[in-house]
Amino acid sequence: MSIHSLGKTPASRRISSSVQNRSVTMAVYQELLDEILHLDLKPGEPLSENMLADRLGVSRTPIREALVLLETKQLVDIYPQRKTIVSPIRIRHLRRSQFIRESLEIGMIKRVLEAGKQAELYERLSQEIVTQRACVDRGDVKAFYVSDEEFHRNIVHYAGIAELWEDISNAKLHMDRARQFTLAHLDSMPELIEQHQAIATAIRSGDTMIVETAVKEHLRRIFMHLQEIANQFSE
């Protein structure tokens, strides 16, 4: 007697359906994540499952599942039976995010120096700085953000552990949101370029102490602007 004759769904079909459902959920998750990180969905903004489902052309189930995933990243606040909102940018999350990223990035640069690849990495970072200067000249914030990401991704690549970029990306989510505020509302791109140049020069020198100082100054700069941002956007 076949599975079909028993009125059951074949295992292969059930698995295929499960994979498809996960795929839709992850696509919704990635879309909402991008919108939150780029401030298209702003801190404190209410999130309606029905409205999101209509806008993204999916059912409410993947919307609900995606929101739960975002809650695990502390990017949305879900109040059962009441409301769901985009999480405010919380200082405690930002400090944790910054600490993890700083520790990993300094460790990776040390690996680059130990491998003797500082000259190669310096050249690659210098190329990215040229791109960033061009972004400033034409006032292209989005392209600058992409280049900024590429600058730091290259450090991971030359450290020989490219797969670590995903872990860093997860660790720095809260920094990324705050960074969007500084790029959009503060005249910070020239300052970032100067700090990127300092990191590249420190790497070329091969001096780990100089590297640590340059990386810390760069990755801690967000705290220098927190009060200014809070005054402009108290919510």
Account of the protein in words:
Helices cover 73% and strands 3% of the residues. The protein is mainly alpha-helical and 235 residues long. It contains twelve helices and two strands; from the N terminus they run αααββααααααααα. Mean pLDDT is 86; it is low at 1-19. A two-stranded antiparallel sheet has the order 1-2. Helix 5 packs antiparallel against helix 9 (189-205) and helix 9 (189-205) packs antiparallel against helix 10 (208-219). It folds into two domains: 4-86, Winged helix-like DNA-binding domain superfamily/Winged helix DNA-binding domain (Arc Repressor Mutant, subunit A, Orthogonal Bundle); 91-232, Four Helix Bundle (Hemerythrin (Met), subunit A) (Up-down Bundle).
Question: Layout of helices and strands, plus pairs?
Answer:
Layout (H helix, E strand, L loop, with lengths): L10 H27 L11 H8 L3 H13 L3 E4 L3 E4 L4 H24 L3 H21 L2 H18 L6 H7 L1 H13 L3 H17 L2 H12 L1 H4 L1 H7 L3
Antiparallel strand pairs: 1-2
Helix pairs in contact: 1-3, 2-3, 4-6, 4-8, 4-10, 5-6, 5-9, 9-10
Quick gist of this model?
The protein is mainly alpha-helical and 235 residues long. Helix content is 73%, strand content 3%. It has twelve helices and two strands.
Tally of DSSP β-strands: 2
- What coarse outline follows from CA principal-axis ratios? globular
- Please report the number of helical segments: 12
Largest sheet entry:
2 strands, antiparallel
End-to-end distance, in Å? 64 Å
Radius of gyration (Å): 22 Å
Strand order of the largest sheet: 1-2
Elements, N to C (H/E) = HHHEEHHHHHHHHH
| CATH topology descriptor of the largest domain | Four Helix Bundle (Hemerythrin (Met), subunit A)
Number of domain units: 2
CATH class of the largest domain: Mainly Alpha
CATH superfamily of the largest domain: GntR ligand-binding domain-like
Q: Report the uncertain regions.
A: 1-19
Percent helix, as a range, is over 70%
Structural class: mainly alpha
Return the average pLDDT rounded to an integer.
Answer: 86
User: From the coordinates shown, what is the CATH architecture of the largest domain?
Assistant: Up-down Bundle
Strand content: under 5%
Oligomer: single chain
